[in-house]
Amino acid sequence: MDYNDLIKKRRSIRKFQDKAVEKSKVDEIISAALLAPSGKRMFPCEFIVVDDKFILEKLSEAKTHGAKLIKGAPLAIVVAVDTNLYDVWVEDASVASTFIMLAAENCGLGCCWVQMHLRGTADGKMANENLKEILNLPDGYDILSVQAIGYKAEEKPAYKSEELKHEKVHYNSINTKK
């Protein structure tokens, strides 16, 4: 798929078919994540591929709002980070998460980024604490996101140029338009 078509077509998908994602597609998505650039070539990201229904359900309960959709996905990729390796790990993990989303779309799959970093539960526990327990992560690790992935059970139209927020574009200073 042409890159411009890919980025216009990619939408957050929250409903998935009850159909496993083929290993070849998982491998392609993981390869894309591993190709993501990293500052100073530190590569602090670790990718945990989850297809176990029990663990997917636990991931869906890791924070109070916005994670329930993970339970309905046949696959999730947790973007974990060794925070001791690099101080700008959030940026590296964000790029890798974006590569995952684009690769999923390119494979004909839907994907939704579920933010975990700095999110929590109603009782005040942080999502990353819950995820560390679920995934047996050692101290010094954090989780930026969980990417819920699967075959789409909903369709959303591609973005059109007139829907974009062109007013957010400035030239040479914040108040200059062309």
State the gist of this model:
The chain is α+β, with helices and mostly antiparallel strands and about 180 residues long. It has helices at about 5-10, 25-35, 55-60, 90-105, 125-135; strands at about 45-50, 75-80, 110-115, 140-150.
CATH architecture: 3-Layer(aba) Sandwich
Strand neighbour order, sheet with most strands: 1-2-4-3
Overall domain count: 1
Report the principal-axis shape: globular
CATH topology: NADH Oxidase
Number of helices: 5
CATH superfamily: NADH Oxidase
Report the mean per-residue pLDDT as an integer. Answer: 94
SSE class = alpha+beta
Low-confidence stretches: none
Largest sheet: 4 strands, antiparallel
Write down the Rg.
Answer: 17 Å
Name the beta content range. 15-25%
Considering DSSP H and I runs of 4 or more, what fraction of the residues is helical?
A: 25-40%
Q: State the order of secondary-structure elements, H for helix, E for strand.
A: HHEHEHEHE
CATH class: Alpha Beta
Keywords:
single chain; 178 residues; alpha+beta; NADH Oxidase; four-stranded antiparallel sheet; 17% strand
Describe this structure in words.
With 178 residues, the protein is α+β, with helices and mostly antiparallel strands. It has a single domain, classed as NADH Oxidase, CATH 3.40.109.10. Helix content is 31%, strand content 17%. α2 runs antiparallel to α4 (89-106). The protein starts with a helix and ends in a 28-residue tail after the last strand. 30% of the residues are buried.
